[in-house]
Amino acid sequence: MKKILHSDKSPEPIGPYSQAVGFDKLIFTSGQIALNTKGIIVSGEIAEQTCQVIRNLKNILEDNGSSLDNVLKTTVFLKDMIDFNVMNEVYNEYFGSSMPARSTVQVQDFQKMSG
Asked: Domains in the chain, start-ordered, CATH in brackets?
């Protein structure tokens, strides 16, 4: 049976979705952006933003009986692939030897599209 999961240590959803949903022994987390618990995007470069995103996910998992060591797959969306190496260094600090499968893609800047 599906169960809605939550962590007070991660930001509240900004739309009609849950932080995470559990099913059996699996946890499916919603995508994260670099929001702190006050709902403010952390300032700074990609390293700080990557840390915030992974901390949010870590908190959700740990508050619901799991950890980053159990993550099977991640998807990383970058505004610019020039940030890949820095993001990858921070990512490695958190996932290290547990290395989940991963996809990393660059997303379109909608402001540039409309201009």
From this structure: 2-114 (3.30.1330.40)
